[in-house]
Design a protein that fits this description.
The chain is an alpha/beta fold. Helix content is 38%, strand content 24%.
């Protein structure tokens, strides 16, 4: 099989917050269509890692390439940063919907503003995406009128409206009541099945096992181990991975 080009490539990325060395020589490549789940204890650097991938955090050494756009250390990325932000969708733990906009307007805003779509085109796409996450009937409501699970599905539709090449998820179900976790994971599972490239930080180990092509374990800013989910969960090689898994599984 011909080698495919990775869509994401991190090469010896180092990130400090003052004295704190948060990412240590991170080397990571992600292939188009791959679903990569990142696991690790709180404070290990998972959020920082994925925030670096779409330029929400600066880093001090190494480089990051996303779909041919190169991010450079210390914020010297220039136009690549804007291109990456329009190509990479992100879903956060705290939905981050615009509270003063209806569901429909949340989804149409960026395609109209950033991509220059007409309102008619943006609206048509928005309804298609809202239907896909089973929430089109809520299009005229405001975020505060929706449950957490519904808000997170709107956030997913909003990200997809920009036709991203890559989707990043930072603990998308951690702020949800238990009964709403399933509906969000279902929508993500569907997206994975359709071939979307996804990097997902989650504590939902069952979901990770089922959906991930690869699980990456990060501890104190280092990638300690990465493998196919069954391998990583059933026979972790490193003591640090074993210790983490024994606490969460
Ligand atoms: P995780 O997502 O795995 O819980 P984070 O990436 O959020 O970890 O944080 C990694 C480390 O960086 C933690 O020690 C955290 O306290 C620290 N950190 C995160 N964001 C900042 C910030 N903006 N300023 C200073 N320290 C930060
Ligand atoms: Mg985090």
């Amino acid at each position: 099989m011909a080698d495919t080009q990775p869509i994401v490539r991190l090469d010896r990325v180092n990130k400090h917050f003052g004295q704190l060395h948060v990412l240590k020589d991170i080397v990571l490549e992600i292939q188009p269509g791959e679903v990569v789940v990142v696991i690790g204890a709180s404070g290990s650097g998972k959020s920082t890692l994925i925030r670096c991938i779409n330029g929400l955090e600066e880093f001090q050494a190494g480089h990051i390439e996303v779909d041919g756009n190169e991010l450079l250390p210390n914020g010297k990325s220039g136009r690549a940063l804007q291109r990456i932000r329009t190509e990479v969708g992100m879903v956060f733990q705290q939905f981050n919907l615009f509270p003063h906009l209806s569901v429909l307007d949340n989804v149409t805003l960026a395609p109209m503003k950033v991509r220059g779509w007409s309102r008619a085109d943006a609206t048509e796409t928005a309804y298609r995406l809202l239907e896909r996450v089973s929430i089109a009937d809520q299009a005229d409501k405001y975020p505060s009128q929706l449950s957490g699970g519904q808000q997170q599905r709107v956030a997913l539709a909003r990200a997809l409206a920009m036709e991203p090449r890559l989707m990043l998820f930072d603990e998308p179900t951690s702020a949800l009541d238990p009964e709403m976790i399933g509906e969000v994971l279902d929508a993500m599972r569907e997206l994975a099945r359709e071939g979307m490239t996804m990097v997902i930080v989650t504590h939902e180990m069952g979901f990770a096992r089922e959906v991930a092509d690869r699980v990456v374990f990060i501890d104190r800013g280092e990638i300690v181990e990465q493998a196919a989910p069954d391998t990583l969960f059933d026979s972790p090689r490193h003591e640090r991975t074993q210790s983490f898994l024994s606490r969460v599984l």
